[in-house]
Design a protein that fits this description.
94% of the residues lie in helices and 0% in strands. The protein has 81 residues and is an all-alpha fold. The protein has one domain.
């Protein structure tokens, strides 16, 4: 059982470390995709804007989850005890 706890704690540390990086990359990809979409003809501009908006919103959501992970952990710890 201790092996599973160690594995989960290692995963938690990895996810907390890469969360901000993934967030920044998604926001940058969203911005670049939106800018590139503005140079495209009207038929394909909408597809680029949808992709860019999705990437940007995904980046903001990852940032919010990463920022509040410690709070969620403390609340869950109190509920499980």
């Amino acid at each position: 059982m201790a092996g599973i706890v160690d594995i989960l704690q290692n995963w938690q540390a990895v996810l907390r470390a890469i969360g901000p990086i993934v967030s920044i990359l998604l926001i940058l990809i969203g911005g670049l995709g939106y800018g590139f979409g503005q140079t495209q003809p009207a038929e394909s501009r909408g597809r680029w804007q949808v992709m860019a908006t999705g990437a940007f919103v995904g980046g903001v959501m990852v940032a919010a989850i990463t920022a509040t992970a410690d709070t969620f952990e403390k609340i869950a710890e109190k509920l499980l005890v």
